[in-house]
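We treat protein structure as text, and this decision shapes the records that our systems exchange. Because each token names a local backbone shape, the row as a whole describes the fold. For reference, a complete record is included directly beneath this paragraph.
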Amino acid sequence: MQCMGEEKQNHKATISRKRLYRAVAIIVIAIVAVAFIVYYWQSTTNVVRITGFQESGGGQVPGEVLYGFTVKIANQGRNDVSGLTLVVKVLGNGSEIGRDSHPFITVRSGQEIEDDDFGIWLNSTDTVGKTLSYVATLELDGKVLDEARLS
């Protein structure tokens, strides 16, 4: 009789181990699948960033002021990106008072571009008594991918 009881316990322990091994296998497979999906998603996501934004001079003529800027971007993703637009805005007390934008046909994977041709002419009276700040945005299909600010 005692042997029968031991056999039942061993049988139950074997079933429990099988369930444990199956559960561990399912968890490992799920982790591998999720990791693959995340890696694939990141490799096809547009990872273009603004890597530099600075004032680059300017000028003045009677009644108008020129604000010049240089912006650097880098495609840090694994895919080429087409249809980007780089926008620089001058803000007065937080509201836009001027802008310049440049479209890019294609930015290749790993490519860095420096655009030093941003110039925004403003009426000199538009800036009087206002705290100025500047923002550069990198947009794709109307959505902002990255943003940089200067105060």
Observations:
- The chain has two domains: 1-43, 48-150.
- The chain has a mean pLDDT of 86.
- The two ends are 87 Å apart (CA to CA).
